[in-house]
Amino acid sequence: MTIRVRTLLTCLSVLTFVAACDSNSNAPRPPAIPIVLDALSISGTKTSLNPVFDPNVYRYSVIAADDVVDDVTLTASAANSILITVNGGILVSDVAVVLDNLSVGDVVRIQVQGVGFQLSDPIEYEIVYLPSDFPELTVTVLENGASTDPLYVNMNGPTTNYVAILDNHGVPVFFRGNSQRLIDFKWHAATGERSYARRTGTINQWGRDDNVEQVILDESFDEIDQIETIGLSHTDVHDFLINENNELILLSYDGSIRDLTAFGLSAQEVVEDSVVQILDRATRQVMFEWNSWGQVPYEDQTTPEPRSEYAHVNSVFEDVDGGLIMSFRGMSQVAKVSRPGGQVVWRLGGRSNQFEFVNDPYSNLCGQHTVSRLENGNLLIFDNGQNCWPVVAARGDTTRVVEYRLDEQNMVAELVWSYQQDGVYTQFAGSAQRLPNGNTMIGWGGRTDILATEVNSAGEKVFEITAFHGETTVIGYRARRYPE
């Protein structure tokens, strides 16, 4: 990368001055003075530095004004230092430097170091140069007690599709874009691999156009596998797991023609069942398959109009006994299915609810997403607040995260913790994750501005990040933290 310094001073004069300051090597040296940048700015880009410059924050990002840009100009200053380098080239404090041939994805490295009597270990600042269609991210809350684990997100809009790993200032550690939608970016604890779902752009025989492949990435973020269901008409986007047995757990909305005259419909109706399929990773052999037809009553839909895709499974969690806990948004119900038998063990919420709700002001679930079993045995659910059953007028438009203690013998679901945020209502998508530090990470899904919020056990916000792409909607689906 070429660096052009706009000044009459030359790099030679700087080096000469550096040598003069350090000529008396036998003289006693005072303690090193801490060296940091006093100011850093950049121009010729779509956005200014994110976050706002702070000498004690060392990573930043900017969004390119165009993906092919000539003159991006950087200025840095440090009162206690005479040696500043940008990508290895020396510059003078407070003098603008032009970065030629800068490409999206490049990282500009600014190193500041004392010289002579102020000799110190160098400190490095970084600026990540993002594509022009990358969403604008802003951390609006960052308090002590927030997790420092990286944040995994996907961000989708009409003209932008990205997955990214973000630090606590909203600066990408990794990002990848695609012309097809990318969703459900995650890390798999069992194997240490990452994955995301990528739309294939194909349409199956039932007209469904959101068929995906689950893409597995290695530690270097290289694609090493692409996974689809076997013998089904569809591979779904909503969830994907790799378990400790190296089995692949996939979801599908698989279609067929059925006689629905019993429900006032025709004898030739297209019906899409919710299917969970488990594959042996090495052989791609189907080890287990469960279909919602006959297990989840078609008439239990809570949507305003009957849907051909009636159950709408949108998350799956492997329980400690190998059973599968699934969220059926179309039924406003969470259910557990045994494995290998495939029987429904219990149903929480919806028309076929089997539990007594205790300490819950609404006593229902409403088009929920992302259910998980916590280490304490409780269930954590992102409860959207849409298509409730039963309908509770007092609830209104309320999205919440709920934690239930389940008594599976006496069939009691006791609400022991919940969180909702004033003015935040997410009709679709969303996630809740209990973190190792006891906080809860919330992905707001279909919200257009708040991407994710982290709250402590008292319901106090310790982290929040917003995402905009001009005035268009950015859908995050899930937001989760994983260890480095």
Folded structure, characterized:
The chain has 484 residues and is mainly β. It has 2 domains: 3-130, Immunoglobulin-like, CATH 2.60.40; 136-481, 6 Propeller (Neuraminidase). Helix content is 2%, strand content 42%. It has 1 helix and 35 strands. The strands form 8 sheets. A 5-stranded mixed beta sheet has the order 3-9-8-5-6. The protein has a 5-stranded antiparallel beta sheet with strand order 10-34-33-32-31, with no helix packed on it. Strands 26-30-29-28-27 form a 5-stranded mixed beta sheet, with no helix packed on it. The two termini are 30 Å apart. Mean pLDDT is 89; it is low at 1-30.
Strand count, sense and closure of the main sheet?
A: 5 strands, mixed
Give me the secondary-structure category: mainly beta
**Overall pLDDT:** 89
CATH architecture of the largest domain: 6 Propeller
Provide a count of the helices: 1
CATH class of the largest domain: Mainly Beta
User: Tell me, what's the shape?
Assistant: elongated
CATH superfamily of the largest domain: TolB, C-terminal domain
Helix content: under 10%
Low-confidence stretches: 1-30
Beta percentage is 35-45%
Q: For the terminal residues, how far apart are their CA atoms?
A: 30 Å
Strand order of the largest sheet: 3-9-8-5-6
- Domain count: the total is 2
Count of strand segments: 35
Q: What is the CATH topology classification name of the largest domain?
A: Neuraminidase
